[in-house]
Design a protein that fits this description.
The complex is a heterodimer of chains A (315) and B (101).
Chain A: H1 3-20, H2 25-45, H3 49-73, H4 93-120, H5 132-135, H6 144-152, H7 154-174, E1 182-183, H8 188-211, H9 219-235, H10 241-246, H11 248-268, H12 281-307, E2 313-314
Antiparallel strand pairs in A: 1-2
Helix pairs in contact in A: 1-2, 2-3, 3-9, 3-12, 6-7, 7-11, 7-12, 8-9, 9-12, 11-12
Chain B: H1 6-27, H2 31-53, H3 61-88
Helix pairs in contact in B: 1-2, 2-3
The chains are: A mainly alpha (315), B mainly alpha (101).
């Protein structure tokens, strides 16, 4: 453990406090935003570029944008009224102390027990029946995380994309006509910035998508970047987005449907479910990744549309 | 006491953060605060998983994939929760026109 680890770890704890303790919604959301940035550094420090990319695109990018929109649009927090301060009245401090102290005590006890266990256990390496590099041969991709997501644990990824699709469907179900409108343009600076950054974001998104087969990256990171681009375009008042949005339900379904079609390749050729010919590995995984990117971008964009403030929407 | 290894240290941080999120989740009333607490709790548990994954010479790819899945699911439930909170409280903080009186 080095000084960097010490500083990063303490920063995580402090920012977690900044996300949990404030009473104002915007303050806690800002605390969480900073925590997500620190977490991206922690993932890099722990050596996982894939997780750091996912955290940056999903955690600090989309999630924070959604939470900021939510905190900004809502009413003041409806927490319990602060008890009237009657200075001098003895005997009132005990319940107040108990209310503040009980959660802290509970946290200290549970954390202490878990920490003790964590420090006592043997530090074994995660071990699987067959090491992953040995099993990588027939998957069609070179990057291990992509191979795990789309070959070894493809059922997980299929259901995960289905969860995201269902979240998008739920947004379609609970929000009404405001989904179709566009945001009123906040001025030329924003649209200038979107015009400048859009090509770069498209390239970054596609690069993340195609780099996933040989290095860090993949459909989830790429979809998040593209959803971020659509969010930026909407916030700057782009006029063509509502047309694109008519295709949104189709895009939403595309990822899961193409994945299911790829899964059915196995039974069609006399193999198991989700078990395609090893020689087809690369084209099948690439097709699934492209469709997944479209589906993920559509689902994330719908989540953004669902929290957009209605007063800024032009029909 | 032996000096801590990096994976042990980050595991401790993960535990502290996850439990803090859980405690806040069950004691706070504001819906947005609950959503943020749930997210903090998720970050803590993912940190614990990655601490285990980083023990070897290279990060364990299977656990990394699991953590990426966790991040995506987090975004899905947070986004849906945000949309539902927005609907519960009215689109712009006011009562909705088609709401029952």
């Amino acid at each position: 453990m080095t000084v960097v680890d010490l500083a990063l770890g303490l920063a995580v704890v402090v920012t977690a406090g900044a996300a949990l303790l404030p009473r104002r919604r915007m303050t806690m959301v800002m605390g969480f935003l900073v925590m997500a940035v620190i977490m991206a550094l922690v993932w890099l420090r722990l050596g996982s570029v894939d997780v750091a990319l996912a955290e940056t695109a999903l955690g600090t990018g989309l999630l924070s944008a959604i939470l900021v929109l939510l905190a900004r649009g809502g009413p003041a927090p409806q927490g319990p009224e602060e008890p009237p301060r009657d200075d001098g009245a003895a005997g009132r401090w005990l319940p107040r102390l108990a209310r503040a102290g009980a959660p802290v005590l509970a946290w200290a006890v549970v954390t202490g027990v878990f920490m003790k266990v964590w420090l006592e256990v043997e530090r074994l390496l995660p071990a699987w029946e067959e090491t992953l590099p040995a099993a990588m041969g027939p998957t069609g991709v070179e990057h291990e995380v992509t191979a795990v997501l789309l070959t070894f644990r493809s059922y997980d990824t299929l259901l995960e994309s289905a969860v995201l699709m269902l979240a998008g469907v739920a947004v379609l179900a609970v929000t009404g006509t405001e989904l179709g409108g566009r945001t009123a343009s906040p001025g030329t600076t924003m649209s200038w910035w979107t015009r400048v950054s859009a090509p770069a974001l498209v390239v970054v998104g596609l690069w993340l998508l195609f780099a996933g087969s040989s290095g860090s990256g993949g459909a989830f990171q790429a979809g998040a970047v593209l959803a971020g681009l659509m969010m930026l375009a909407d916030a700057s008042g782009a006029r063509s987005l509502p047309d694109l949005r008519r295709a949104m339900p189709w895009g939403l379904a595309a990822g899961v449907l193409v994945f299911l079609a790829a899964a059915a390749l196995g039974p069609m050729t006399g193999r198991g479910w989700l078990d395609w010919e090893p020689s087809w590995g690369f084209p099948v995984i690439l097709t699934v990744e492209i469709a997944l990117t479209v589906g993920i971008a559509a689902a994330l964009h719908l989540l953004y549309l669902g929290v957009r403030a209605r007063r800024e929407v032009v029909a | 006491m032996m000096p801590l290894a990096a994976d042990q240290w980050y595991g401790l941080i993960g535990i502290a953060v996850a439990v803090a999120g859980l405690v806040r989740l069950v004691t706070v009333q504001d819906l947005v605060a609950r959503l943020v607490s749930l997210n903090v709790m998720g970050v803590g548990s993912l940190l614990l998983i990655m601490a285990v994954a980083s023990r070897g010479a290279e990060v364990d790819p299977l656990l990394s994939a699991l953590v990426i899945t966790g991040l995506v699911i987090t975004v899905a439930f947070t986004g849906l929760g945000a949309v539902l909170i927005r609907r519960l409280e009215g689109p712009d903080g006011g009562a909705e026109e088609d709401e029952l009186p």
